[in-house]
Design brief:
Length: 626
């Protein structure tokens, strides 16, 4: 299969009809949209759009508040695209009206730099003006698609025209490239939507200029790697700096490589992807090992307790993967995307849908947190919080989750010539356009809990259906209309080519074996330890279910592992039961005698379901007996 010919299949062509993601979408529609809106209303984010703040008033506008607002609008728009909701639209329209009323004649729109520091516009690269502008663009496109209303889109285009003039044409800003990337991928999205070449040119300018300017400053506590400006982008081969910024940049680079069919830029993206997944990514698809700069560190540095793993970073990683499979159909990208989505991304929201995690550690010790919380601020070791909260000062993750869940079907399919690629599996029905022919497909599955996926075609036609065979699946069987077939497999996809008839049913059966995985010994925090996975899900243990020292528990590959249905906070979720061995306790701090061990039951739950039952110990990696 040639590179650079892939085309996305948008969620707006697909309806999630049942199963895992339908439950999530219903929860987000009923609970999360309103919960995030209410918190943003309470904290002044929406009020800031009136541009009426004065010194001494509460809720001083922040440099990135616009991004929170427009991400919420974008997320709401994805749900409106499926079902119009007058009450929800009224809320969005009120916010858009405020933007229209407060936008400068020249197009500028940022509350902080209008009412707090009006003379500082486009002077500090470390602030988030261009980042906010990017999210404005994405929200505007989503709302125009959902409702046909273009007022927000007009605001966005007017602002982008100002940015284009100030940065690309006049060079009158005090810096040359965004401090927090995001506008690059948004500009490519705007280019695709409007077909206006100038938006692509501006994206190219920002991407190609990065790492070449002597006017691009960074924060005092970081170097240029923090903002991925240490080298021109085509010379960067390891993931460095702030992980969200990095993956937004790489997504923009992949967009540009696809549109321009540029092999060099794609190879850079491929090297960066390889560095991340093979040396700098947690087993849960989390990235960003340290709170200092929310950053990547170095190869194999993956601490458990202090893991940063920002929810937004894993969202950005999944976005990057989706762009990469459009350039090159290889299952490694979808494997990575679903690892991030089902584990770290969903860990960022509670099962109730109204509270969130910014960071997602692999281990939690309540005693550590209690001690650190009792220390003076300057002496605290950084430890992620143990319970999700309703809103953060930097509340980028909640509306970002809203965007992802609302548009989750974006990850289902793509096309290339006469091939339909099935990347991620979910219960859904939709239409895929293939060489100007509409192909209707219905997918039925209980994935990720079960490994059977059925795809029924509702349209006659000759084409190839390429089914992803996940790397975790030791065995995969394919039948068409009940007859087992042997399809050629290349780069993680089974290619099923035939003249399809309406009603033809393809069944993909993936063996969901429970696996015990150990980490590379170069990961010093995990030496001699192992984690348990089943399908795309990583499992963990909490002291709420296991009343002993979890860090002392030893598991074995040869142990018996059983999957059973259980209820966690009213959610029906498959859990894994097995046995582990722990040492008998002793009074001394140290001793020279062999420990006596006894067997205990061990209950494991999906990582995304953790921390929904109060403050509890968390353990994802266990001592390995064999």
């Amino acid at each position: 299969m040639e590179k650079f010919i892939g085309k996305p299949v948008s969620f707006d062509q697909i309806d999630v009809t049942d199963g895992f993601w339908k439950e999530k979408q219903e929860l987000f529609y009923k609970v999360t949209i309103k919960s995030v809106y209410d918190r943003f209303e309470e904290t002044g984010r929406f009020e800031a759009l009136k541009f009426n703040w004065k010194e001494g008033m509460p809720n001083k506008p922040h440099i990135f508040w616009e991004s929170d607002v427009t991400k919420w609008i974008e997320g709401a728009a994805y749900f409106l695209q499926k079902k119009r909701d007058p009450e929800l639209e009224t809320k969005v329209d009120e916010l858009v009206e405020r933007m229209v009323n407060t936008q400068d004649e020249n197009g500028y729109l940022n509350a902080y730099f209008t009412v707090v520091e009006p003379d500082a516009r486009f002077t500090r690269r470390t602030d988030h003006e261009l980042y906010c502008a990017g999210h404005l663009v994405e929200g505007a496109i989503a709302y125009a698609k959902a409702t046909g209303k273009t007022a927000m889109l007009q605001v966005a285009e007017k602002y982008i025209d100002l940015i284009d003039r100030v940065f690309r044409i006049d060079h009158s800003a005090k810096f040359d490239t965004p401090g927090h990337e995001e506008i690059e991928l948004a500009l490519m999205k705007l280019y695709d939507y409007t077909k206006e070449e100038r938006y692509k040119l501006l994206a190219e300018y920002f991407i190609n200029t990065r790492g070449t300017s002597n006017r691009d400053e960074t924060y005092s506590f970081t170097d240029q790697e923090h903002m991925q400006s240490h080298l021109p982008v085509r010379k960067q081969f390891t993931a460095e700096g702030h992980s969200v910024r990095a993956l937004y940049l790489y997504s923009g680079m992949a967009d540009l490589a696809l549109r321009n069919k540029e092999e060099e830029l794609f190879q850079v993206c491929k090297e960066l992807f390889s560095n991340i997944v093979n040396k700098r990514m947690y087993i849960t698809g989390g990235i960003g090992s340290t709170h200092r700069g929310e950053s990547f560190t170095f190869d194999y540095d993956l601490p458990e307790y202090t893991a940063y793993n920002e929810t937004c970073a894993s969202i950005a990683l999944a976005m990057f993967c989706r762009r990469m499979w459009l350039i090159e159909p290889n299952g490694i990208y979808a494997d990575c995307a679903e690892k991030a989505l089902y584990n770290t991304v969903l860990s960022g929201v509670s099962l109730s849908g109204d509270s969130f995690f910014y960071e997602n550690p692999l281990a939690v010790d309540p005693d550590r947190n209690i001690f650190n919380d009792s220390r003076p601020q300057g002496l605290k070791e950084h430890l992620p919080i143990m319970e999700r909260v309703k809103v953060f000062d930097c509340s980028c993750c909640p509306p970002n989750l809203l965007r992802v869940v609302g548009s989750i079907a974006d990850y289902m399919y793509s096309t290339a010539e006469d091939v339909i690629f099935a990347h991620c599996f979910m219960d859904a029905a939709g239409t895929v356009w293939l060489q100007d022919k509409a192909i209707s497909l219905v997918q039925k599955t209980k994935y990720p809990y079960e490994g059977r996926i059925e795809i029924t075609t509702q349209t006659d036609g000759t084409y190839t259906l390429a089914l992803r065979i996940p790397a975790w699946a030791k065995k995969a069987d394919i039948t068409i209309n009940g007859e087992e077939i042997s399809a050629p497999v290349k780069d993680g996809y089974a290619y099923c080519k035939r003249s399809w008839k309406t009603g033809d049913k393809v069944s993909l059966n993936l063996e969901m074996e429970i696996k015990v995985l150990e980490a590379n010994p170069k990961v010093v925090d995990l030496c001699g330890r192992a984690a348990v996975t089943r399908g795309p899900l990583v499992y963990c243990a909490e002291s709420a279910d296991n009343n002993y020292e979890l860090r002392d528990a030893r598991i074995s590959r040869s142990g018996e592992y059983t999957t059973i249905q259980d209820s966690i906070c009213k959610a029906e979720i498959p859990v894994i039961t097995t046995s582990a061995s722990v040492r008998d306790g002793f009074d001394q701090l140290y001793r020279d005698k062999s420990a006596t061990r006894h067997t205990v039951p061990l209950k494991l739950i999906p990582y995304f379901a953790r921390a929904n039952r109060g403050k509890t110990e968390l353990c994802t990696w266990f001592l390995l007996e064999d």
